[in-house]
Amino acid sequence: MKIGELARRADVSVDTVRYYERDGLLTPAGRQASGYRVYGDTELKRMRFIRRAKALGFSLDEIRGLLALSTDPDVAEVRRVAVAKIADVDERLAELQRIRAGLSRLVTACPGHGQAEACPILNALNDEAPT
Q: pTM of the entire structure?
């Protein structure tokens, strides 16, 4: 299949396929005499793996590692990587909760009317008031 069909079947853009090729995550199965890249089911499966891993929050470097581990008969390292990703997600969730709490305090303090100079949200963003 050509790059457009691969992209369509993997539910990504053609630019994404090209990017992953440049990054070394994907290699075409070959080229036609005309120079067009040719992909097979193996590349489609790999492209879908990459897309799904991205959707779960894995970075391209982490995905590269997971792809390398996919041929290892022992899945202990794969599990370790997934557990580490959960810890990373938990940290990001905690940070987002802190951000939300700060924004909620500012919104509660803001009457929603009056002069901009008295707005606690704007003042906090200008470092003129604690958050």
A: 0.78
